[in-house]
Amino acid sequence: MSWFGKIMGGGLGFVLGGPIGALVGATLGHTLFDDKVRMEYAEQGRPNGLEQRQAVFFTATFAMLGKMAKADGRVCENEIETVHNFMQHRLRLDPAAQQFAIGIFNQAKDDVTPFEDYARQFGQMFAHDPQLRMMFYELLFSVAMADGVLHPAEDHLLRATPAALGMHGDVYQTVRRQFVNNLSHHYAVLGLDEGADKVEVKKAYRRLVNEYHPDKVIAKGLPEDFVRFAEGKFREVNEAYEAIQKNTA
Description:
The chain is mainly α. It has helices at residues 2-8, 12-16, 18-30, 35-41, 49-69, 77-90, 95-110, 115-125, 130-144, 152-165, 171-177, 183-189, 198-211, 214-220, 224-248.
């Protein structure tokens, strides 16, 4: 992760600015990285635009997960386990990146910056990438639902997120339906209402397969670790299309 090297070199927090930049600086100040790790990433130079986008995506994700976990007043063990599993098994972060992600999570859950401020800066950075904003929102939803329950405090934040990200309010219901395991779920994965005709289904399928293709996602500036999440969505889109085709033939 080249952007991670720029962070460890100490030059990225200032460049990012806003609440996310401040969070990066505070996390670096409170996280005890091994000297060998710091030496490895020293003198990495100034981050380019792509690296800034990658850093914002990574930082905003774990900041907002921290806020969501603390939304009901306390962080419980299953929420901690969910985030650890997400880092280790879905993103497969190396130890240094995991340590930084945990630092962001812990710093954000206890700071006074509102959840919406982090979401708003993310939305501004990716204002011209609606699919990346949707992917980010789906990612938050998937972690919130990892224990099989959408808690009221999590639900409140997820309902507030679309406006901060600059998305339509009805996206909440569309994404929520993705976590119901029936045919409605498959239509929701394609962003459609159940019963959409075959022309709409095929059009939505082709658009999403193109947008979630790993090469396209990398080109848009998603951190390489999160490309694995996009690959999962790519498979999910194909599975949804196949399920709809099978059940509406």
